[in-house]
Design goal:
By secondary structure, the protein is α/β, with parallel strands linked by helices. It is built from 10 helices and 5 strands. The chain has helices at 14-20, 25-39, 81-86, 108-116, 136-139, 157-173, 178-186, 188-199, 202-207, 212-226; strands spanning 46-50, 56-61, 95-104, 119-126, 149-151. A 5-stranded mixed β-sheet has the order 2-1-3-4-5. Strand 1 (46-50) and strand 2 form a beta hairpin. Helix 1 packs across helix 10, helix 6 crosses helix 10 (212-226) and helix 7 crosses helix 8. The structure holds zinc ion. Zinc ion (ZN) binds next to helix 4.
Amino acid sequence: MRGLSLPSVGGRPAIVARVLADLSGPEQACLEFAWQALLAGSIPIGAVVADADGTVIGSGRNAVYGQAELPAISSSLLAHAEINALIGLAVGRSYPECRLVTSFEPCQMCTGALWMARVGALTYLGADPVNGTSWILESARYVGHRPVGVTGPRADESGRLASGLVVAYHLRHRPAGRYIGACRKVCPDLVAVGATLIEAGIFELAAGREPWAAAAPALLAAVERAG
Ligand SMILES: [Zn+2]
């Protein structure tokens, strides 16, 4: 496997077990990599490439900001989780049986990268009603001759948590920025989730470098409260 080593989740309180039990291994890994991105000071998004058996063959997290310990792209505006997950795929073959799995609906660059990397399908957990462009894969003429199956977003707490992580990050770091401004117009429900995560202590948990297994119960409970 290229990229990050897969973290493990230990003891899981009820809400974690209920929500995460519905997720595949790669989907769970995405959330854990998103948490690692936040711990490193970047935008909390994680991604993996999984084969037909669910085996992870590439992984990455957002590394636009913060510490740069990754083997792929970091400290660059292009250092998105999906790029870091895709960039190690070998040239000279296609990956129709593989799936890019990401915690957050990919942007235009990453949606294009998936297609250029010849990966067969996309799964994302959380919606990005502002910048998400997964719809390109189903409607753009350019990509129409090699269809890519799209799955997402998830309607349960895992999807709202995945989106809420990103919104919380922007609420903390760029509350007057364009992204939050657009979110307030397009998806105020996700702004509420992000605010609830902040109230639940997401940045204190990150500052304490809590592992995902320790942080997930409090964060999922907060998302549940936010409705
Ligand atoms: Zn992207």
